[in-house]
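Tokens for ElaB/YqjD/DUF883 family membrane-anchored ribosome-binding protein. Go.
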Amino acid sequence: MANELEAGFTGSPVEKPEGIRKVASDTASAIKREANAVTVGVTDHPQAASSLILGIGAAAFGIGYLLGRSSVSTRNRYWR
């Protein structure tokens, strides 16, 4: 009698996904493909990947520094 019990869904769906489910499925598969492509590219060219990451980090730091400097008021200096 215990062998007759089955838990969970083990088959394939009768209806194909449509609407938001299809879009979510397509998006998930596209993200997986792109992540795999990035992984293969980084594996093939580790120096270029580290240089790219370093360059993006330096650019982000520079932009943050400039935005921080522009937000400081020059009229109210605390050391006067």
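The chain has a mean pLDDT of 84.
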